[in-house]
Write a structure and sequence with these properties.
Residues 8-100, 105-192, 204-287, 295-382 form the Ig-like domain. Keywords: Disulfide bond, Glycoprotein, Immunoglobulin domain, Membrane, Repeat, Signal, Transmembrane, Transmembrane helix. One of its GO terms (cellular component) is membrane. The structure is a single chain. The protein has 754 residues and is mainly β. Among the domains are: 9-101, Sandwich (Immunoglobulin-like); 104-258 and 274-280, Immunoglobulins (Immunoglobulin-like); 301-384, Immunoglobulins (Immunoglobulin-like), CATH 2.60.40; 393-482, Immunoglobulins (Immunoglobulin-like, Sandwich); 494-577, Sandwich (Immunoglobulin-like). It is built from five helices and 56 strands. Helix 3 (649-675) packs across helix 5 (690-707). It starts with 7 loop residues before the first strand and ends in a 47-residue tail after the last helix.
Length: 754
């Protein structure tokens, strides 16, 4: 590799400057490298020819004798200047220096008269534009303002602040602007301080807040904030993003102005000024943004390199700045044009030169520019060529073997073949960039190579290099050939029987079919050799019905896809319609209208059946619930009876007979009344025996006898004679004439008896 000092590089480059009208201007340019070196100058890209007004000094600097913003012919000495240096290694161009004329405009803001009460705040402002930025000073009553007075604050942008006003502050004020171009005076303004200091409470208020500023690194920013109120508010500063402002280079001017010296990019942000009432949370705020720009500078410079012929050279140039810089590459002072073997990547940060040759040997420059400034760096590419290297391989040919294979053959070089250790075949799709190239190594005794795994219907370029231990030969001639086209893949085929004479062939579209123009469908009876077809179908068709078939034989159906390269492999299916015919005989066609009506009837019957079943279930549940309740009541009465004191045996039998008779009679009466049965009908169906009649008479007399007692005596009964009767009301049927039928004697016993 070559160092900068042994090639060609700038030691001093021209810088931005502001020139004074009718004054001389010198632009410096100093170069080091291998002599002889030639230096020339350009303005706005055009060569500068030595003249009486502008000429180059012996050290390479440019001298302008009388700088003029506008000349008589309409031209101007303002513009962008750069110097170029050239030797036998190449040419380099310096950074661009922006030259402007010093100027000063009239004041566009003048101070205004003000009347402020004692103890208040007064503010005067004047503004003027100029190059360079004018310095503004203030005068009071035609005398410079005493800047040692801490109540007087002068801000760089032409602002005068006076706090804690007193009567002696009254007077006439004006400002004076000065730069190398001129000196100008503003109009005068009168300040009147009235009355005495007021003790009336006033909320804090910000009179003037910070402005939005755009500055460059290392400059000074002044953010103004002036507030009033009674008591006097406390002014504080913060960043909107919550980051600390810091203390280095930070200074407070007057009662609340923030000054930041030696700006960096990290100072960019939104600054908030707050006026706080002492001892409370009452506050007022104002904010302004500060944008700090940084000129482009290199993080990584390109390095000079030496590479053998046919290899790849890579230059890297990384720059930073705010805003981010744009990178441009030059080759020997001219803008570099990209091509198949010259590529720019990573936002132009990387320059790659593939398959370099002698013509690529040059000085390459990286220019980084943004709105804050520009810079440049250079590096040289040296192409190495050793004597005695083989000449390029001869007779390179490429032949297509298949859709994915090409055979490349060549002949050995004509010169210097003894030291050849092998060949390298360079392969690339013709449509791809050079960086997509790949290589295959071949032994020195082989003069052909079968290249596989290629893409169908694709053009490829090939060239060969012969290699020795000292380097590679130049590249052979490039040959381009295309692979064969590929026929479509086999489609998937499905057969569906529609009826006894029709089948439907369906298939699925698939990307695996590749590029195809359509489908061909064939079919035949299996015992015949001749196919019916082809039936040509479009590429978007996925089904076809084959009709008028013979149900007694088996058919063969064949489908294939085709394109401009030919027919693909076919898919074959066999189908028989005999089973369909047999099913049709066994299962005759249905009467659709009848089936539909039956379906409707069946549906209605199902719904009615469900309703009936649900109703039955509900009644069963109710029956069980009420039956269970009756049994509970009866068991309670039985317990009361069982707990009654015993009576003498002599009385128990008679009484028990009476109770038994009464109970049985009551049960008979309930049966007669509840079911409304005809007694005559019952007697006819069930004639009573004599013993039964006598028993009934005895029971009736016993029942009458028991009715005469005032109280009924209850005795316990044996369990084998004990029965439970569910409690039910005993409605008495009315006599048609209003009288009641013969009724049993009143019973003063329990409602349920056993």
């Amino acid at each position: 590799d070559f160092g900068h000092s042994s090639e060609l590089a700038f030691v001093v480059e021209p810088s931005d400057d502001i020139a004074v009208q009718e004054q001389p201007l010198i632009l410096y340019c100093q170069v080091e490298g291998i002599q002889p070196i030639t230096i020339t100058w350009r303005k706005n890209g055009a060569m500068i020819v030595d003249s009486e007004n502008a000429f180059m000094l012996a050290n390479g600097s440019l001298y302008v004798s009388r700088f003029q913003r506008v000349r008589g012919d309409g031209s101007s000495d303002e513009g962008e200047y750069d110097c170029m240096a050239q030797n036998h290694y190449g040419l380099v161009v310096s950074r661009k220096a922006k030259i402007q004329a010093a100027t000063m405009s009239d004041f566009h803001i003048h101070p205004q008269n003000a009347v402020v009460e004692e103890g208040g705040v007064a503010r005067f402002q004047c503004q003027i534009h100029g190059l360079p930025e004018p310095v503004i000073l203030w005068h009071k009553n035609s005398m410079p303002v005493n800047t040692d007075n801490e109540r007087y604050t002068l801000l760089p942008k032409g602002v005068l602040q006076i706090t804690g006003l007193r009567a002696e502050d009254s007077g006439i004020f004006h400002c004076v602007a000065t730069n190398i171009a001129n000196v100008k005076f503003s109009r005068e303004a009168r300040l009147t301080v009235s009355g005495s200091h007021s003790t009336v409470y006033k909320d804090p208020m910000i009179l003037v807040g910070p402005e939005n500023l755009t500055l460059t690194v290392h400059q000074t920013a002044v953010l103004e904030c002036i507030a009033t109120g009674n008591p006097r508010p406390i002014v504080s500063w913060s960043r909107l993003d919550g980051r600390p402002i810091g203390v280095e280079g930070i200074q407070v001017l007057g009662t609340g102005n923030l000054m930041i010296s030696d700006l960096t990019v990290q100072h960019s942000g939104i600054y908030v000024c707050a006026a706080n009432k002492p001892g409370t949370r009452v506050r007022r705020t104002a904010q302004g943004s500060l944008v700090v720009q940084a000129p482009a500078e290199f993080v990584q410079h390109p390095q000079s390199i030496s590479r053998p012929v046919g290899t790849t050279a890579i230059f890297t140039c990384v720059a930073q700045g705010e805003p981010p810089p744009q990178i441009t590459w030059l080759r020997n002072g001219q803008i570099l044009e990209t091509s198949d073997h010259i590529k720019l990547k990573n936002n132009n940060s990387t320059l790659s030169i593939y398959g370099i040759n002698q013509a690529d040997e040059a000085i390459y420059q990286c220019l980084a520019e943004n709105s804050a400034g520009s810079t440049q760096a250079s590096a040289r590419l040296t192409v190495l060529w050793a004597d005695g290297l083989p000449s390029p391989p001869q007779g390179v040919r490429a032949e297509t073997v298949s859709a994915t294979t090409i055979q490349v053959s060549w002949e050995k070089p004509l010169q210097n073949t003894k030291e050849i250790i092998g060949y390298v075949l360079h392969i690339r799709k013709a449509a791809d960039p050079v960086e997509m190239e790949y290589q295959e190594a071949v032994s020195k005794s082989t003069f052909q190579q079968l290249v596989t795994d290629l893409e169908p219907s694709t053009s490829y370029s090939f060239y060969i290099k012969a290699y020795t231990s000292r380097g590679a030969s130049k590249a052979s001639e490039v040959t381009v050939v295309s692979t064969l086209g590929e026929v479509p893949a086999m489609p998937s085929l499905f057969i569906k029987v529609i009826n006894s004479t029709t089948v439907q062939a369906t298939w699925e579209p698939s990307i695996k079919l590749g590029q195809h123009e359509g489908f061909k469908l064939y079919y035949r009876k299996v015992h015949l050799s001749q196919y019916t077809g082809p039936v040509l179908l479009a590429s978007n068709v996925t089904a076809y019905n084959i009709t008028h078939l013979d149900a007694s034989v088996v058919y063969e159906v064949k489908l294939l896809a085709y394109n401009q390269h030919g027919d693909g492999n076919s898919t074959v299916r066999f189908v028989s319609l005999r089973e369909t015919v047999e099913r049709t005989v066994l299962n005759p066609p249905c009467d659709c209208m009848k089936d539909e009506q039956n379906n409707k009837t069946s549906t209605t019957g199902i719904i009615i059946g469900i309703h009936i079943g649900v109703t039955c279930i509900i009644f069963c549940i109710l029956f069980l619930m009420f039956g269970y309740r009756g049994r509970l009541l009866m068991c309670k009465n039985v317990q009361e009876q069982l707990s009654t004191p015993q009576i003498p045996r002599s009385q128990r039998s008679a009484t028990g007979l009476v109770l038994n008779g009464a109970t049985r009679r009551d049960r008979d009466d309930r049966d007669l009344n509840g079911k409304q049965l005809d007694m005559n009908e019952l007697e006819r169906l069930f004639p009573a025996s004599p013993s039964q009649e006598q028993q009934e008479k005895g029971i009736m007399s016993a029942h009458s006898l028991s009715a005469s007692h005032d109280e009924t005596q209850i005795s316990t009964l044996p369990l084998d004679e004990f029965s439970i009767i569910e409690e039910q009301p005993d409605p008495l049927p009315k006599n048609p004439h209003g009288s009641s039928p013969a009724a049993p004697a009143p019973d003063h016993g329990p409602a349920n008896e056993g």
